[in-house]
Amino acid sequence: MIFNSSINLAHPGFGSANGNDSPLVAFDVRLKLLASAVLIAVIAITLNPLAYLFASLFMGAVIYVARLRLREVSSYVTPFLLIALATLVLHLLFSPAHGRVYLDLYLFKISSGNLVTGLTYAWRVMLFFAVALVFNFTTSALDLADGIVRLLRPLRIIRVPIDQLGLMMFLAMRSIPLLFDELRQIRAAQISRGVDTGGSLIKRIRTLPGLLSALLSALLRRADKMSESLILRGYSPGRKRSSIKLYQLQTEDFLFEAVFLLVMLILFLSIYHAEF
Hints:
This protein has nine helices and two strands, in the order αααββαααααα. The protein is an all-alpha fold and about 280 residues long. Strands 1-2 form a two-stranded antiparallel ribbon. Helix 2 (about 50-65) packs parallel to helix 4 (about 110-140) and helix 5 runs antiparallel to helix 6. The model is unreliable at about 1-10 (pLDDT under 50).
């Protein structure tokens, strides 16, 4: 993307809950974090198509409730579709052939077993994507950092600087849009000065050092301004910090937890049924 000036360098907006009127936005971020982690773990430990089917139905319902718009998520879908397609192709070509052989290319054998395995792993990739997409569009970066800090509070017993880690995660997530903005401005400045961004791949690679050095310099300037802003606002790493939000479980949080536990029960039953 950094080689082609015609490509839109709009940033992905990590933590894009702002403006989303979905009821999932109001759910406790700690429950959403734990639910996402557990669901991803369950998907990762099994290749049972029945479990994937139930997980897909559940994620379809969650996406509907999250009110995700196609124009908002379209830029996210293409990379994951490419990853899923690459996963399918790699399993078709390199997995041990079993079942009916459809094509024998001497070094590669494409069989029915390879096809099923490849489709299953590609299905897994898309499920991972669906979980990450819903979480991203229903949780702001501030809530995410706050939720991680609250879940990791027990680590304070062993003197882990949880508040500093939370601030670092928040600043890192909010820096992603800034990085894309800086990249877009640098590319526009280079083009206005007559830098040729076209040509062969080798020629494009040769333009990278100038682009990356300018980007690094701009990011360091921004980091310096950010540190000055924190100092001027009286930030002190050792002090106890308050929170802009009061995190208390509400009725809808308990309902969400009950539905999620029911889904997990169904997934585990389907896995158990497949194994025994």
